[in-house]
Fold this sequence. Notes:
The chain is mainly alpha-helical. It contains 3 helices and 4 strands, in the order ββαββαα.
Amino acid sequence: xxxxxxxxxxxxxxxxxxxxxxxxxxxxxxxxxxxxxxxxxxxxxxxxxxxxxxxxxxxxxxxxxxxxxxxxxxxxxxxxxxxxxxxxxxxxxxxxxxxxxxxxxxxxxxxxxxxxxxxxxxxxxxxxxxxxxxxxxxxxxxxxxxxxxx
Length: 150
């Protein structure tokens, strides 16, 4: 292999070049398929949401709680969803603890945020993990393929 102007090595042997090209082609096709499926899933989820909204309205308009169709029961149900208010999260956690519900609290740091923070700390320590983080985080590297259109 020899290095070109961009610092990327060029494959010299024809057999090796064929294997590289075939494998790169497989990778690109798989990534394109994954993107297509992701878009398809978004469209299907929008269809589900639209149909569910329409069915809810039909049940309400016809004053029905549910019905049976094709061996399946469809029933109107109300579910309650709860989210914390982000700026009040720490206060919520403290209130839960104060009222004896501390076992509900599971404090976490988002993985990407932690990763960025640890990389920044390692940059300040000449690539080494700071002593105060040793045994608290696991740092590893994984080789991946970066693909860009030319």
